C-alpha cells in the first residue's frame, strides 16, 4: 500500500529492507544460532545506482504473488527464467528473493520457492506427503528423496530411538543397504555433503516433533565440523531463516580425531592436513559453537596438533561392512558421542 501511494503521488517508490550484510549477522548463544540484527537499508527507484535492483525487487514480488495465488511451488531457476532480460544473472534474482523474504519476515518455502531434491532419508519414519503415505522402511535400498516442500508433510510418525545424520552419501548407502535401522531403530539422513535448505528444514522439523537425539557421522576434518555448524547454528547467507533451519544440540558421534588411534586406523588411511586445513581448524577453535563444548575443543585440538585427517570411508580398510557391523554398534553400545 505504501509503495502504491508513493507511485500514485509521482514520487517513485522506496523499499525498506533488513540488511543481510555480514556485519548484521549475529550469533546468539541462548538460541545457539546465527540471526539477523536490526540494521536496515533502503532501495529507491529514483536513485540511479539502486533503480535496477528496485525494479528487480518489484518484479520478484509480482512473480511470487502469482505463484502464491496459483498455490504452486517453483525453484529459484524457474524464477530466474521468467524474466531473463531483467535479471540477466541468476545471482541477481536469488539475492533479491532472499531480500524479499527478510522484508516480509518469512521463509523462502513460505513463498513457495523451493530447492531441488538433494537429501535422502531412510529408516523408522513415516508421514503423509501431499496426501500420499510414505513409509521410509519400504522405499527400496536408496530410501526416499527429502521433498523440497516441507509444508506438505503431515502426520510424522516414528518409533526410532535416534536420528543418524551422515555427511557422505557412500556411508549412507552402506547403512541403507545393510538395513542398519532394523537392528538399531533409527532414521538415517544425508544431504550428500554440504547441507541444502530442504534437508536442514526436514531435520529441524522431525527433531522438534519426535524429540529424539541427533547423532552425526562426518569426516574427521575441519570441513566435517563446518557442515555440523551449518546444521546446528545456520549459515550466514540464510541467517534470516535460522529458526526453521537449525537443529541445536547435535551430538558428534564420529569420525572423531581421537578415533584414528582408538580404532587403529592404518597410516595409509590418514591424510596430512593442508595449510588451508590447519588454518580453518584454528579458526574453528575461535567459533562460539566449538568453544562452548570443551570435548569438541579437545578433539579439534588433537586434529590441529597431529595435522591428520580422515574420511568416513577410511573405515572400509577394515572391511566394507565394518562401519555397520563393528564401528557404529560399538559407538552406540559405549555411548561414545560428545
Question: Could you characterize the architecture of this molecule?
Answer:
The protein is of the alpha/beta class and 338 residues long. Helix content is 41%, strand content 19%. The chain contains 15 helices and 17 strands. Strands 10-7-13-12-14-15 form a six-stranded mixed sheet. It has a three-stranded antiparallel sheet with strand order 9-8-11, with helices on one face. It has a two-stranded antiparallel ribbon with strand order 1-4. Strand 2 (25-28) and strand 3 form a beta hairpin. Helix 12 packs antiparallel against helix 14 (294-306). It is globular and about 75 Å long. The chain starts with a helix and ends with a helix. The mean pLDDT is 89.
Average per-residue pLDDT, rounded, comes to: 89
The neighbouring-strand order within the major sheet is 10-7-13-12-14-15
Sheet with the most strands, sense and barrel status? 6 strands, mixed
Count every helix, treating DSSP H or I runs of 4 or more residues as helices.
Answer: 15
What's the SSE blueprint?
Blueprint: H1 2-8, E1 14-18, E2 25-28, E3 33-36, E4 40-44, H2 51-70, E5 74-75, H3 76-81, H4 84-87, H5 90-104, E6 113-114, E7 120-123, E8 126-129, E9 132-135, E10 144-145, E11 153-157, E12 162-166, H6 169-177, H7 180-183, E13 186-190, H8 197-210, E14 214-217, H9 222-233, H10 242-245, E15 251-254, H11 259-262, E16 271-272, H12 275-284, H13 288-291, H14 294-306, E17 308-309, H15 322-334
Parallel strand pairs: 5-6, 12-13, 12-14, 14-15
Antiparallel strand pairs: 1-4, 2-3, 7-10, 7-13, 8-9, 8-11, 16-17
Amino acid at each position: 500500500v505504501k509503495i502504491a501511494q508513493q507511485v500514485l503521488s509521482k514520487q517513485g517508490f522506496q523499499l525498506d529492507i533488513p540488511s543481510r550484510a555480514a556485519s548484521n549477522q549475529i550469533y546468539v548463544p541462548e538460541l545457539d544460532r546465527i540471526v539477523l540484527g536490526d540494521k536496515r537499508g533502503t532501495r529507491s527507484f529514483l536513485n540511479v545506482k539502486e533503480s535496477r535492483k528496485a525494479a528487480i525487487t518489484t518484479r520478484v514480488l509480482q512473480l511470487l504473488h502469482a505463484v502464491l495465488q496459483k498455490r504452486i511451488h517453483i525453484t529459484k531457476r524457474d524464477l530466474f527464467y521468467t524474466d531473463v532480460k531483467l535479471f540477466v544473472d541468476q545471482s541477481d534474482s536469488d539475492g533479491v528473493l532472499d531480500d524479499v523474504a527478510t522484508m516480509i519476515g518469512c521463509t523462502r518455502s513460505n513463498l513457495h520457492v523451493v530447492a531441488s531434491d538433494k537429501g535422502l532419508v531412510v529408516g523408522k519414519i513415516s508421514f503423509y506427503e501431499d496426501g500420499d503415505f510414505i513409509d521410509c522402511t519400504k522405499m527400496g535400498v536408496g530410501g526416499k528423496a527429502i521433498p523440497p516442500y516441507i509444508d506438505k508433510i503431515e502426520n510424522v510418525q516414528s518409533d526410532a530411538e535416534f536420528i543418524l545424520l551422515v555427511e557422505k552419501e557412500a556411508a549412507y548407502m552402506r547403512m541403507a543397504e545393510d538395513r542398519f535401522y532394523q537392528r538399531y531403530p533409527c532414521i538415517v539422513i544425508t544431504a550428500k555433503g554440504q547441507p541444502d535448505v530442504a534437508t536442514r528444514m526436514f531435520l529441524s522439523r522431525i527433531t522438534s516433533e519426535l524429540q529424539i537425539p541427533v547423532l552425526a557421522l562426518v569426516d574427521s576434518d575441519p570441513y566435517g565440523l563446518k557442515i555440523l555448524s551449518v546444521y546446528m547454528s545456520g549459515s550466514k547467507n540464510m541467517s534470516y531463516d535460522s529458526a526453521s533451519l537449525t537443529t541445536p544440540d547435535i551430538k558428534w558421534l564420529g569420525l572423531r580425531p581421537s578415533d584414528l588411534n582408538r580404532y587403529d586406523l592404518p597410516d595409509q588411511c590418514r591424510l596430512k592436513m593442508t595449510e588451508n586445513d590447519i588454518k580453518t581448524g584454528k579458526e574453528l577453535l575461535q567459533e562460539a559453537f566449538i568453544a562452548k563444548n570443551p570435548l569438541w575443543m579437545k578433539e579439534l585440538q588433537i586434529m590441529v596438533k597431529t595435522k591428520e585427517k580422515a574420511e568416513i570411508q577410511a573405515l572400509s580398510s577394515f572391511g566394507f561392512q565394518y562401519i555397520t557391523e563393528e564401528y557404529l554398534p560399538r559407538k552406540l553400545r559405549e555411548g561414545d558421542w560428545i
